[in-house]
Amino acid sequence: MTPSKEEFEARLRQIGAERYHDRHPFHAMLHGGECSPDQVRAWVINRYYYQHSIPMKDAAFMSRVEDPDLRRIWRSRIEDHDGTDTNEGGIRRWLRLAEAVGLDPDYVASCEGVLPATRFAVDAYVRFVRDKTLLEAVAASLTELFAPKIHAQRIEGLLQNYEFADDSSLSYFRNRLKEAPKDVAFGLQWVLDHADTAEKQDAAAAALIFKTDVLWSQLDALYGAYVDPARIPPGAWQPGEGLMMQRAS
Hints:
The protein is mainly alpha-helical.
């Protein structure tokens, strides 16, 4: 017997309650003001690799969608990140955060210094969306169900604890509070409607678990490399690299 939509939605939400990366100790440090300036910079650099890959993930998804209505709705996700004539987009907002913490935005945009584990995790997510079923691809995006809470906590924590935090540097998170709800409302309903067998529900739940693992592993990499600085892997960002003062000189 196939569980009801209500039961299935509760299952998806429980995955977030148990596995979303707001439970990771690095986020507790970041939001609590316990990160050093270099630990914040490492987070900004590595998270940028995820941000800049999201439009490529969505483009890979759209390339397989035959339904023009679904493509039209999904297209706004790319515009939210890449920007339009009237919206600078999330990627530019993230680079403004990078500049606020003292990083050269050109260095951050080059993706030099990204941790190997970050690169592997994010690239795996892009491949997952490109290669798996459309249902699994959409289900993986449902971590957005849990994102508004972490964005709100982040805005509050950064404003309270870091001098760089202001309306300009945190504009990425404020905009996601407005953008994400429309995306997740559509995505959740689409998954609930299309996961119409127990097997499809299992596949969608597994896809969401995969995505939480992608997010969690990025923070594991940051924690291992920069909370314990002796474990920065070869080729990854070293404190002192890619700073604005270097470009000015």
